[in-house]
Each structure stands twice: as structure tokens, then as C-alpha cells.
Design goal:
This protein is an alpha/beta fold. The chain has nine helices and twelve strands. It folds into three domains: about 110 residues, Response regulator (Rossmann fold), CATH 3.40.50.2300; about 70 residues, Signal transduction histidine kinase, dimerisation/phosphotransfer (DHp) domain (Helix Hairpins, Orthogonal Bundle); about 130 residues, 2-Layer Sandwich (Heat Shock Protein 90). The chain starts with 7 loop residues before the first strand and ends in a 12-residue tail after the last strand.
Length: about 350
């Protein structure tokens, strides 16, 4: 099938003969198949090079299929489709697998053609879902561009008015008036520069996805860099930025993209916070595994994502999605809290102690 071209499958089964037969058949129809004889071995392969789909037995020594599937969810979120291939055909077992997040459940013995059809159906569903998500992103991008274009008109019009007044020498030799209008023009120019930066986040080619370079990275410098980028706006508005992050916390992330996303979110939180308040950012190991970032504004009457700049949120969603993570909101004691969860094994330390 054409859907097989370029698709990589991770096959997990402790029966060598079955593993060999399935691998040979799927390879003949166009899939690239990597096999593992145990859950721990499969997890190592998953971390090294995530596949497009996972097929796993349930009855395996040590780590069974259900535990392996839970570990996969912890590492990747729901980003990789999962099929159980097993002799456990009881209804209760099938329901347990499907409720755990599996996309399909095939009972042994089975016909190879049925397996191929099931794989193709799952991959097609995933592809259709991703296309629907992309359409939503494209629609959001169009709204963002329209909003930014509208916001650009105000500072541009104001700059032109102030400079035209100076050129016309309407105020003669009144240097104080001239200086005031020059300062207003500079202020509007700075606002225009920030809007153009926002526009650059949204103005991507149609269908373009972020190209992330994930590697073991210390998290504290990423968070501090984001806070430093947002510090100027915070100082102008009289707002404190508080950082909470373990110095040895590390993860497999794209540090530059994530720092940029966090900086944009901090700017968005600062913009809605009252003068003299405090915006907070923290990074910790998540209880379910992976990494959790929390950004809280200094107080805002509006709740949820409608309160923060859509440009910053759109870019952050793309970065989080590129890492296979999730983004959620909470509203506590008059403050919005944006929670970002990124999957993966979080090491205690990478590199030398700072």
C-alpha cells in the first residue's frame, strides 16, 4: 500500500518466530520494521528514534504489554499510534487495551493481510486527524495575521503624524515640543518593532512545521534566558519576574525554540498583569514523568487563553506539539496559570555543574 512508504514500525514480541514472520511480511509491503524482544529493549529503541506506529504483544516476561504501553504514553504522550497484537482475546483484555489508549487490538492467530489493513487504517486516521489540526492552525494563523495587521496601523499612523508635524515646523523653535513629538515617535517605533516580531512568529509558509533539534539540555539556562528576554518589558511595566527551577534539571529538548516560546508567554503574562505584581515561571519534574513548566500572570480578570496574546500562544503550541507535549490552563485566585508538559525521560544532570 502507498501509505506504507517511508513509515517506520516498532514491533515488540518475545516470540522470535512470530517476530521474524511479521517483520518479513511488513517489510515486503513497504514498511521499515524495527523489532524488539522485550519492553525495556523497545523503550531504548523508541528513545533513539521514535517510530510512526508501535505493534506490541501483551504476554511478555518482565514488562507486559500494558505496562509497556503506559511507559510509551509517559514518554511520548499520545503522539504515536499503538496496536496490540496478542493471544489474549477476552473482552475484558481488549477493553483494557483500548481504554489504556491503544488504537487497535488484533487477536492471534491472524491473517497477515488483516494486519496490513489494520495498520493502514490506523495510519490513515492519524493522518486525517493531523490534517484537521493543520486546518485549525491555518485558520488561527489567518486570524492572527489579520489582528496583527490591524495593530500595526496604529503605531505607523502615529509615527507619520508626529514626523510630519516636525517636518512642517509647526512648532517653530519650541525645542521642548519637538523633543516631545520625537519621543512619541520613538515610543511608537518600539511598539511597531514588537508587533513585527509577533508577526514573524505567525507568518510561516502554509503547512510548514517547526523543525526542532532535540538534544540533552540543561533546563535552568533555558528558563533564565526566557526570563531575560522578557525582563525589559517587565521593567517598563514595574512587574517582577520570579524564576523557580532546579539547577541540575535536564531534558531532551530544543532549548532555543523552547526558550523563545517561554519568553513570548512571559511577555504575554506581563502584558495582562497589573503594575507592581509578580509573574512567575517554574520548571519541575512531572509526577507522571517528563517535564512540567508553569507560567502564572500577576492577576487578570479574564480567564484562560483568551486573556493572553494569541501570537505567543500559537508559537508555544507549535513548540509543545513538536515535542509531543500538552498545554493546559488553570485559573486560581484571580491568576491564569499556563501548564506545559513535555514527555520524555528527565535526567538529573547533563554536563558539568555550573
Amino acid at each position: 500500500m502507498s501509505s506504507a512508504i517511508g513509515k517506520r514500525i516498532l514491533l515488540v514480541d518475545d516470540e522470535p518466530q512470530l517476530c521474524y514472520s511479521v517483520r518479513e511480511f511488513l517489510s515486503r509491503v513497504g514498511y521499515e520494521v524495527v523489532a524488539a524482544e522485550s519492553g525495556p529493549q523497545a523503550l531504548d529503541l523508541l528513545v533513539e528514534d521514535p517510530p510512526d506506529l508501535i505493534i506490541s504483544d501483551i504476554l511478555m516476561d518482565g514488562m507486559d504489554g500494558f505496562e509497556f504501553q503506559r511507559r510509551v504514553q509517559s514518554l511520548t504522550g499520545a503522539g504515536i499510534p499503538f496496536i496490540f497484537l496478542t493471544a489474549k482475546g477476552d473482552l475484558a483484555d481488549r477493553l483494557e487495551g483500548l481504554r489504556a489508549g491503544a488504537d487497535d487490538y488484533i487477536v492471534k492467530p491472524f491473517e497477515p493481510e488483516e494486519l496490513e489493513a489494520r495498520i493502514a487504517a490506523v495510519l490513515n486516521r492519524v493522518e486525517h486527524t493531523r490534517k484537521a489540526e493543520q486546518r485549525e492552525i491555518d485558520a488561527l494563523r489567518s486570524r492572527i495575521l489579520a489582528e496583527v495587521a490591524q495593530q500595526l496601523r496604529t503605531p505607523v499612523t502615529s509615527i507619520m503624524a508626529h514626523l510630519n508635524l516636525l517636518l512642517a515646523e509647526r512648532f517653530g523653535q519650541d525645542q521642548a515640543q519637538q523633543e516631545r513629538y520625537l519621543q512619541n515617535a520613538i515610543k511608537d517605533a518600539n511598539a511597531l518593532r514588537e508587533l513585527i516580531q509577533d508577526l514573524s512568529w505567525a507568518a510561516k509558509e502554509e503547512g510548514e512545521e517547526l523543525s526542532l533539534k532535540r538534544e540533552p539540555t540543561r533546563v535552568a539556562p533555558v528558563v533564565r534566558g526566557a526570563a531575560a528576554n522578557a525582563a525589559r518589558l517587565a521593567r517598563e511595566r514595574g512587574i517582577e519576574i520570579k524564576i523557580s527551577c532546579g539547577g541540575l534539571l535536564s531534558a531532551n529538548i530544543d532549548g532555543n525554540a523552547l526558550s523563545r516560546a517561554l519568553a513570548g508567554l512571559l511577555d504575554a503574562a506581563v502584558m495582562v498583569s497589573p503594575q507592581g505584581s509578580r509573574v512567575e515561571i517554574s520548571a519541575v519534574r512531572a509526577a507522571e514523568g517528563g517535564l512540567e513548566f508553569v507560567i502564572a500572570d500577576g492577576g487578570c480578570e479574564r480567564q484562560g487563553e483568551g486573556s493572553w496574546q494569541p501570537q505567543a500562544l500559537d508559537y508555544a503550541r507549535r513548540v509543545v506539539r513538536g515535542h509531543g507535549g500538552q498545554l493546559s490552563w488553570a485559573y486560581e485566585q484571580g491568576r491564569n496559570k499556563l501548564v506545559i508538559w513535555l514527555p520524555g525521560r528527565v535526567a538529573k544532570h547533563v554536563g558539568k555543574r555550573a
